[in-house]
Amino acid sequence: MGKLFVISGASGVGKSTVLARVMAGRKDLRFSVSATTRLPRPGEIDGKDYYFITKDKFRDMIDNDEFLEYDAHMNNFYGTPIGQLEEKLQKGNVILDIEPNGAFNVRKVREDAVLIFIAPPSLEELESRLRGRGDTSEEQIQVRQARVAWEMEQSKQYNYIVVNDKVDVCADKILKIIAEEAD
Ligand code: ADP
Ligand code: 5GP
Predict the structure, then answer these.
(1) 143 Cβ partners below 8 Å, 6+ apart?
(2) Structural domain tally of the chain?
(3) Confidence bin at 1 (pLDDT 50/70/90)
(4) Which tens digit of pLDDT belongs to each residue from 44-87?
(5) Residue whose CA is closest, atom 10 of ligand 1?
(6) Cβ distance 8 to 107 under 8 Å?
(7) Quick check: CB of 133 below 6 Å from ligand 2?
(8) For ligand 2, what atom is nearest to the CA of residue 36?
(9) pLDDT tens by residue, 75-120
């Protein structure tokens, strides 16, 4: 059985960007693909970035106990399907990109999970990255920003906090944590 590494951080902080570098730097690491009811952004691939599903399908999966954890936030449902996660854990270490409620629920069932919080260099930079991505509506930007203070507060309960100033530096720090913590 591999180890679980959980990455969280405010929307737009650079989780996907940094994770792509981390995954490229450690080929044995597998990414847990979440299910979500939100629509795909341009370039996102079903089954790779997320399983994009309907609310009805999501509810069916809840009823059938198919999630390790799930959470409703930002007007949508997001959850970690157990099947794909267990399959990946049999092969090695797995990384999850989920928000704090999900992270703490994962920790309840897997006490040895390593929780890593990615923080922005500043709140101004965070907003500029989220807006700069250019694929999120003004309404969704407001919804996402409303969660930032709460998310930052939760970071105190994480095992590690890493600032994403430069992508490479942040990815290297996470790779170092993984190298130290991996079984
Ligand atoms: P998240 O997955 O956390 O929502 P993204 O990875 O989509 O965030 O990054 C949001 C935007 O910020 C993207 O346009 C990305 O290219 C940019 N970005 C990510 N990390 C950095 C960084 N260290 N410096 C400057 N821009 C960054
Ligand atoms: P986004 O819509 O920007 O991809 O993700 C929004 C938020 O949902 C992010 O904080 C991301 O970490 C979180 N998230 C993604 N997948 C899951 C999941 O399976 N469970 C939980 N609890 N949060 C998730």
Answers:
(1) 74, 75
(2) 1
(3) confident
(4) 999 999 999 999 999 999 999 999 999 999 999 999 999 999 99
(5) 12
(6) no
(7) no
(8) 16
(9) 999 999 999 999 999 999 999 999 999 999 999 999 999 999 999 9
Ligand 1 nearest atom to the CA of residue 133, by list position: 14
Against a cut of 0.90, is the pTM above it? yes
Length of the chain: 183
In this structure, what CATH number is given to the domain that contains residue 38? Answer: 3.40.50.300
Our answer on whether the CB atom of 9 is closer than 6 Å to any ligand 2 atom is no
Domain membership of residue 140 as a residue range? 4-182
CA distance 79 to 88: 16
Amino acid at 74: M
Residue closest by Cα to atom 18 of ligand 1: 14
Does any ligand 2 atom lie closer than 6 A to the CB of residue 151? no
